[in-house]
Every structure is written in structure tokens, then in C-alpha cells.
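Practice set, problem 2.
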Amino acid sequence: MNALPDPHRTTITAVATPPGIAAVSMVRISGPGAIQVADRATDGKVSAQAPRSSRHCRVRDAEGRTIDDGLITVFPGPHSYTGEDSVEFTGHGGILATQEVLGCFLACGAVPAGPGEFTRRAFLNGKLDLTQAEGVMDLISAQTRLSLRAARSQLDGVLGRRTTAARDQLLETLAHLEAWIDFPEEDIDPQTGALLRSSIQAVLDTVDSLLATADQGRVLREGVRTVIFGEPNVGKSSLLNRLLGFERAIVSDTAGTTRDTIEETINLHGIPLRLVDTAGVRAALDRIEAEGIQRTVRQIEAADILLELADANKPKPADAVFPTSAAKRLLVLNKLDLGEHPSWAGVDAVRLSCNTGEGFDILSNTIRDSLHFSEVDWGEHAVAINARHQASLMLARVGLIAALELLENPASDTELAAIDLREALDALGEIPGRVDTEDLLGVIFSRFCIGK
């Protein structure tokens, strides 16, 4: 097994399952002393155990008292998740029992794992590239079928392979360019300039295709911020409750009941919608309502989609002035069961009733269509870059375009083009972690849960 650089040569342990009461819980150990630590806690049962097989054992404290009993599995390195010797103990899911088992492993020589340290070691040992490590976190936090599919694709290495292939192609192109610079007397190829530009353009096309998935990646990871707004008593809280399928917000005929924003997430055709119910917009009657309306204004400014709700049974109000927003705006007419006022005739809107549920299928489909975002848009493989990938790809794009412009000008210095290509090469290498990114690793893995 390849040795990890210090300080990663410690043996770490952590609870790998969420806190709380459950049928089972898991405590993991990884590092050069993982088997020895587990041996001390189980009367030497682990070292004699067959790799990747489970057996029943008891975890005992220093006085020999049984803390818990369950199944223990051994994964000798490098054939483990982390690439190191690893042991997993699955016991009863009580809070105290799990903590006592963890304390026993710590007493036997392991140290507490930091957030994401198991996955970080997997990356450092070459078991995962950086995009796959991020895919682990995306898989854990996926809320919809599409986000799960995108995370699975990233964990399978689709994004890492595409960026690595682009980097390898660029590396070969750079090598040809530098040979051309260093040995101008050598007749490498009369079409060298055209071939170099063609190769760089192919890499640029790959970069552009990946950058085109940035919005989808943001939506899948963060959700579509969908703000419900309108005048008081038009049914905003009722709409939120209907979309959620349960009574989340207080519904009352009294105007101004909603004083603060309420946020919940739903799954709409595989797309996570972050629904935000807001206070009704009107002239505030007191300071508390004024603050609620001000929060509504801030939510409107930050929205991806605005659901402007109005009462279909009442006359169409004069156009209200709302904060400027780049969000898509959908007009929704509620209380259709009470009839529609003639002033709404011909107005383009989604018509529904929060009381009867009529029209909600239409609303759901309209929201989906307004996003131009559904399962069919993903093709065979879901690839959705995150903000880190986007920043690196933008840097690569700048370098590639600059190099192309220089190579298209016969009077330009080709050495400057080589410098631009090196910068693009480094930017592409940052995505799968093919460059020195110690500070970057700290940021990425700090988002992980303990035990992963």
C-alpha cells in the first residue's frame, strides 16, 4: 500500500451513521493501525478474520465488560474505500452504545476523524479523483431523482474522465507547440499551426459543453428558489400548504397573518423547488408587518421563479410596483371555485383553486416548462458542474481563447500562446485534483459529515 504523507499516517475512527436511535449504527476505523485497534477492542478477533467478510464479535472495555455486540468487517488496504487498512463495526443503534464503542476504539489507539477525512484519504490514495470525492457529498445530500442521477454520474467518474481527457489532449498539443518553438529548424509538419488550432478548439468545445451545465448543477444542488408573493388574503399560505401536501403555514382570513418568510423544499418532476411563502404586500399597519414586507422584497430580489398570486374572484388590481428581478414570473389566479371576475378575461395565467386542488397539475407542468429543465434534457449521462468546476473551466476557457487568437496571428509570439495553454492546463487539472491543491482540499472536505 502506498504510504500517505504526514500527518495522514494516523489511525482515525468515527461514527458513520447519523446521530439518533436506530436499529443499527456503524463505527469506522481507517489507517495503518486499524486492525490492531480493532483487535484490542475485540479480544484479538479481527487480525485472524478473512478480508471483506463479516463475523459476530463483542466490543469490550478495558475491564473486559461487553459494550456492544455486532458484526465486524475487515478491508485490508489498498482494497478498501480509503486505500488503507479499514475496519467497520455495525452494532445496535442506541446513542449511548454507539458513543461507547467509539470511545473504546479511541482508547485502543485511534484518533477522532475530521469532517470528510475518510473520503480525503481515499482521494490522497488515488481511490477517487476530486470530482468523485465531491460526488460522494452530492450523493449524500441529493433530494430528487435527477440530483441523485447527476451525483451518481459524478461519483462514477464521468466528469473526471471528461476533464482529464481534455487535459491530456491539451498537454499533447502544448508539447507539439513547445517543440515547434524550441526547434524551429525542424520541419515538424507544414500544417502544424492548423492542427494545433484545431486541437485547441476541440478542447474549448469540451469546456463550453461542461460550462453549459452550470445552471443545472446549481439547481440540482441548491434547488430553484421559488417565491410566492402577492397581496394579503389571496391564498399564498394555502398554495404553499397544497404544494407541500401538509399544513405548514397558518391560513387565516385575517390580513397580515404571515409576518415572516417560510421556506420548504419539494420535489417537482425531479427538480428541487425551494418554496418561500412571504408576507402580503400592502401598506404596513405596524413595524412588525413592515419588516415582514421588507423581507418579502429581499426574497423577490433573490428569486429564480416568482409565483405572483392573485384572487380570481376579485377585480384585477392596478399593476403593483415590485422590486426589479431577473426571475421568471408566473401569474397564478387562485379561488377559481368562487368564479372568475370578468376583468381577468384574456389574461395569461395559471388558474387554480387551493380549496379544491383544481389546476395544480397545470401549475406543476408550467413551472417545469418555464425552467426548460427535465429528465429528457440530460441525455444518457447526467453531468452537472459545481461552482468550483465552473471557476476552473472559465479560467481554462480564457487561456484557450487567448492562445487561439495568438496562433491565428502569424506575427504574434508563439511563446505567449504556450503560456496561455499552460494556464489552461493547470485550470483543467484543478478539477480532478491533478495539481497541488492542499488549500482547496481543506475547503472541499470541510463540508463533509464526520465519518465520511
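Problem 2, part (b): a different protein.
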Amino acid sequence: MIETPENAIYCLNDEIGFVSLIQHIGDDCTIVNSARVSFGKQIKSIEDKDKKLIKYLLANKHETPLEHNSLTFLVKCPLFVARQWLRHRIASINEISFRYVEAAEEFYIPQSFRKQSENNRQASIQGDFGEQEEHNKEIFDLAVKESYLAYKKLLAAGVAREQARAVLPLATYTQYYWTVNLRAFLHFIKLRAHKDAQFEIQQYANAMLLQVESIFPETISIWKELNKT
């Protein structure tokens, strides 16, 4: 796995999964300048009239000026989080391959377990398992360890990595670079930071928004106001 960057934010309270904004292009001025290019105007600092323009663009869904920038993240997350993440297709991604490298013994183990929502097939609710909670953790932990043991035995027997990896659980950590423009990023945040999104991906979305807020402070502030995030 790639070394953890200094500015990484750990997302799942296990000091394994993280997200890190490793590079960016553009700022609030880029959005204003791309919106006003028709008039041949350009700014170098944000004024009140520029904030009003950004608010108008966001409120009225005139969002193409938000596309003239770039955000690149290094992400380390469980496979089940990554598979939700990759449904957002307006982005570029390059992921570690367990065909080329051996998977590390790194798994996401929930600190607590949730129950299935009775009125939402894809949602969960706070669990109250009592003494069963520790047993749930034991079952989960045993399952991932047994899967990894099987993986290692297959590799030791000479089985190709591309086949042996099939026994790894969805709790296995993967890692990838994800590059996206601000418009697509905010769409991701709107869906994945929502209270009805899966808890684990919410943690990544909130951490990413915190990092991007320092790059686009005015735009993110206005977007939050409009979306009550």
C-alpha cells in the first residue's frame, strides 16, 4: 500500500482507512472568471459581487463554471465503500491491483453493528444488540481472518494472485487515486454525506468536504447554505 500522506484524514476510527487531497487546480476566482469570460473580465480576489454571482450560479443550476478545476484525492477504503464510490462516473480513477501486488492483511472491522431498516431496503438503523454485540464482532473478525488465511494458502500453493484474490472479503482495504471537478464533487457530497447514505461512506464524504472547503471557501460556504449541509 502507498504511504499515508501527512494531511490524510482517518475516516473509520481504525487508523487504516483515510482520504487525502493531494493536489488541486483552481479556486473561487476560477469559477467567477469562467462564468464572466463572455464579458472578457477577470478577477484575482473575491468581492461581494462575486459571491453573489457564485450564489446565483449554484441556486439556478448554472454549474458549468464549477468544472474548470481539478481535485485529486488519494483514498484508502474498504472494497464495499469503493464499489459505492465508483458509481459516480464523472471522475478519473486508478486503483491498486491485487493482480500485481499481494493484498495486505488490513480489514475494516465495525466498532458497532446496525440493524436493517424496516422501511428502507438499502438503509440501516442504529442497532441495540446488547451482549450479542461482542459476539457479532467475533463472528465478523473470524470471517475476515479465515478468508485471508485461505488467500495466503492459495498463494503458497502457487495459485495466481488474480484468482486467489477472489476469496478476499468486501471488508478488505483498497486504495486509489480519484480526480474530479468541483461540480461532480459536490454532487458526490450531496448524495454520500446525506444522512440516508451508508455510515462508512458518509465519513469519507465529510472528510473530503472539510479538505476542499479550504480551497473553495466561498463556494463551499454558499453551497452549504443552499443545501443546508
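Answer key, part (b): Residues 37 and 65 are 10 Å apart (CA to CA). Residues 9-112+171-227 form a domain with the Gyrase A; domain 2 fold (CATH 3.30.1360.170).
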